[in-house]
Amino acid sequence: LVANTFGLTGSSDPKSYTGDPFSANIERIVYLALSEVGLAQENPSAAPVVTAEVHGTLIKKRCAMTKRSQWRRARVVPRTVEPRDDEAIGPDAKIPLPTIYLGIRRLAPIGEAGEEEVQSRALEMHVDDRRVMVDFVNGVIHGATVTPDVTLQSIKGSRKRTAQPGYAEHEALAVSLGQDSLGSIATALASFSMLKRDLGDDYPGGLLIIDELDAGFHPHAIDRLVTALKLQARRLDLQIVATTHSPRLIEAVHPDGDGNHRAPDKVVYLLDTRRPRLAED
Questions:
Q1: Integer angstrom CA distances of residue 220 from 11, 210, 217, 223, 265
Q2: In 238-255, which positions are buried (b, 16+ CB within 10 angstroms) versus exposed (e)?
Q3: Cβ neighbours of residue 157 under 8 Å, at least 6 residues apart?
Q4: How far is CA 229 from each of CA 134, 198, 241, rounded to the nearest angstrom?
Q5: Could you read off the pLDDT of 199-251 as tens digits, one per residue?
Q6: Which end of the chain has the least Cβ crowding within 10 Å, N or C?
Q7: What is the pTM for the complete model shown?
Q8: Gap between the Cα atoms of 162 and 153, Å rounded
Q9: Residue 256 confidence (pLDDT) above 70
Q10: Residue 104 main-chain phi, psi, to 5 deg
Q11: Residue 228 pairs with which residues in a beta bridge?
Q12: CA pseudo-torsion sign 93, 239, 128, 223
């Protein structure tokens, strides 16, 4: 829902290094059956609300479920609660914060796909963005020699597209599950680096959302992953939101166990599948 609320959606807006827009639509992330639309519309005020601060002004977007003729699943439109005539953001428009959503498709193993389904080619990338990828991967994986020879990899029919740095010890196609996920995250960071350089003073920061962040990583690598992400978040003005089932990842965000109220980071723990609510403390 958060990913669906933000993003750059115009046809002339910039694209990431995978060729995707800096936005995400929920109908490409989860399956919402068309039969659920009527139930949701019986009580529209009960729909979840995403609140954002935009240039000092709070904007609330209600996540309204609707039908769309070209999809066999429902979509969600972020509609402004109590819109004002002078608002620059349209009542049914996304909040224009560049957004990249990394879902589980990033973990589709290249090695398990048929050779005829796999495509790999050298990717043109600015030297600064190559350095972002290499530094980030080196900060998480110790003992591997990472090179700036970036390749773009994809699997037909899966919509998986990711860039991988080079490895001196093996081909980029021979990455492990953790390396594959790390390459997707590094590609997103390089894309924000490109956007920040191209937009200059107009760069508003960005939103990076990662589902199951810990998947494929050794516990020690999780510690280094969090450290590396915090560094890049500060450098690229990013808000990073990630889901996890890993206590180790939660401990890596707040090593002392009780949080640091002066830090910009926090853990949100959800209880109760039927009526989700936040856990205290």
A1: 42, 19, 8, 5, 20
A2: bebbbebebebbbbbbee
A3: 117
A4: 13, 22, 11
A5: 999 999 999 999 999 999 999 999 999 999 999 999 999 999 999 999 999 98
A6: C
A7: 0.93
A8: 5
A9: no
A10: -70, -15
A11: none
A12: negative
Is the predicted pLDDT of residue 281 greater than 80, yes or no? no
Per-residue pLDDT tens over the stretch 32-66: 999 889 988 999 888 999 999 998 899 999 999 99
Which DSSP string do the residues of the chain spell out, in sequence order?
A: -HHHHBB---TTS-B-TTS-BSB--GGGTS---THHHHHHHHSGGGS-EEEEEETTEEEEEEEEEE--TT-SS-EEEEEESS--TT-SS-TTSPB---EEEE-GGGG--GGGS-GGGEEEEE----HHHHHHHHHHHHHH--S--EEEEEEEEEETTTTEEEEEEEETTB-GGG--HHHHHHHHHHHHHHHHHHHHHHHGGG---EEEEESSTTTT--HHHHHHHHHHHHHHHHHHTEEEEE----HHHHHHHSTTSS--TTSS-----EE-SSS-EEPP-
pLDDT score recorded for residue 111: 87
pLDDT in tens, 82-113: 988 888 899 999 999 999 999 999 999 888 99
Instruction: Give the tokens for residue 119.
Output: 């495509």
pLDDT band at 158 (very low <50, low <70, confident <90, very high): confident
Q: Which two tokens stand for residue 29?
A: 């992330």
Distance of CA 178 to the CA centre of its chain: 16
Are 222 and 216 in contact by the 8 Å Cβ rule? The answer is no
